[in-house]
Amino acid sequence: MTDTGKYHFFRYGGLNILLDVPTGAVHLLDDTAAKVLPAFVQDRDRDSLAELVPAQELPAAQRAWDQLQDLVDRGLFLGPEPVFARRPGGGELKAMCLHVAHDCDLRCRYCFASAGSFGGSRSLMDAETARAAVDFLLSSAAAVYELDFFGGEPLLNLDVVEATAAYARERAAALGKRINLTLTTNAYSLAEDARRRLLDLDLDIVLSHDGREAVHNAMRPTAGGGESYSQVTRNILAMAPLLEERYYVRGTYTAHNLDFVEDIRHWLDLGLKRLSMEPVVAPPWAAMALKEEDLPRLRSQYWQLAELCLQQPFTFFHFIIDWERGQCGARRAAGCGAGVEYVAVAPGGDIYPCHQFVGQRRWRMGTVFVGITEPALREEFLHVGIADKSRCRQCWARYHCGGGCHANAWWANSDLRQPYALGCELLKIRTEAALYVKVRQALNQYSCEGDVHGQA
Amino acid sequence: MKHVLTIYSGQKNTATAACGQCATSCQSACKTSCTVGNQVCVNKG
To answer: A-chain residues within 8 Å CB-CB of B17?
Structure first.
């Protein structure tokens, strides 16, 4: 396996896959080209091949060398790093996470929101604050907006969700703008009446569930300490078919279920098809925390998941790489957008860079009633793209993660520019598996002659 | 004989400026594990 800032080469499942990092181009090498590659990238002279391979292999090695050189000549390998605009479109605010409830009917053991309260008192957002948040969001110069109803558990404040959704759509239409609405719920209170009300709101919905019954119950108890699996599962299975493509079931895996692919199989057995399973982020001393020594096992899990994706139709969120409609390089270089294009709003109206910073006074940026009062914080987040992070500049996966999660960087290293190292390793494992799936799918779909996906 | 097969030519990734209209990463399914690679451009259909 080779890892440089300009390219990444890896082998899996009999395939030799070469990623050109700046362009995102993906090439498949045969064993001869894979053998030639190390010498080629070291700028060795083509004549040096005679010292590296037996005489009978030399003609093939020279052809492989010439074909690698052809990639270089076509700008598909070892090209210059593009210089991207720091923040595409000027960094207008365009997405908001609206914490309509700092309360929850579950007490998930890994919850970054302190089981829904975000370290403060349990509270609900009132309709006036929610409207002010919408006005604040739509006051930017963006044209397309995202508003996510979040918590805690937003179903505990469904009246305000309904009123705010209607207001947001009305205001966006009046301004000639577009707004997409989403909601994240633990589904514990997603009974028939709530399901009907949410369907009327025309939302994309994230449904939280951890997979197998024992895994789910161990991590996601009710506020009273009871088991939540049966009720949550029943509600999700009633809701998901009604949402067609507009849902994800989202789980968290921890050190207690390092065999998390079994939880994904459980979802598939339940008939769920749009899935996202995320690694827990927990203090290193916590029993549930993932550790460096878990990485080989987790790597094996992601490869199992890749093979599963090729065997049966379902969508795994972090394996999605859309080669036709994926984001441009400038967007990828800019990173996640927290604190600049994206903010979170607490029930009282305080603004934070993202949902994971909510409740931390050091990160309070202002309020929806008066706007941003700490512009230095916005400026800080404007300068945490991949160009600002020394580790990211040399990492082959930088255009797949955009520099990683700022909140994770802060909790792990107290430094927005120092990515969370374990998260980086998991991202790289996941990206290799995603690329492998894409290559396999492309090979299955097209003939093996020439450029099988897009024109050079 | 072909020793190198281009699966994806990645030509769109090198644009140095962008419209800025796309969704931010965390407005997505995961909320804890930032990724830009699987986001979709709003102007590409």
So the answer is: 84-85, 88, 330
Kindly state the tokens that stand for A212: 């197998």
Q: What pLDDT digit, counting tens, does each position of A352-411 carry?
A: 999 999 999 999 999 999 999 999 999 999 889 888 999 999 999 999 888 989 999 999
pTM of the predicted model, to two decimals? 0.93
Which of 1-45 (B) contact A at CB < 8 A?
Answer: 1-42, 44-45
Residues 6+ apart with CB under 8 A from A17: A9, A10, A11, A26, A27, A28, A29, A432, A435, A436, A439
How high is the pLDDT of residue A91?
84
- Yes or no: say if A110 and A104 are a contact pair by the CB < 8 Å rule: no
Closest CA in chain B for residue A397 = B37
pLDDT digits (tens, 9 = 90+) for B13-43: 556 666 777 777 665 656 655 566 667 777 7
- Cα A266 to Cα A6, A382, A387: the distances in Å are 39, 41, 41
B13 closest CB neighbour out of A91, A328, A338: A328
For residue B19, what is the nearest residue in chain A, using CA coordinates? A89
β-strand partners of A123: A102
Is A431 within 8 Å of chain B by CB?
A: yes
**Predicted ipTM of the assembly:** 0.89
Residue B26 CA to residue B30 CA, distance in Å, equals: 7
The single-letter code of the amino acid at A29 is L
Which residues in chain A are contacts of B13 at CB distance < 8 A?
22-24, 326, 328-329, 332, 399
DSSP secondary structure letters along A343-382 = EEE-TTSEEESSTTTTT-GGG--EETTTEES-HHHHHHHH
A155-175 confidence digits (pLDDT tens) = 999 999 999 999 999 999 999
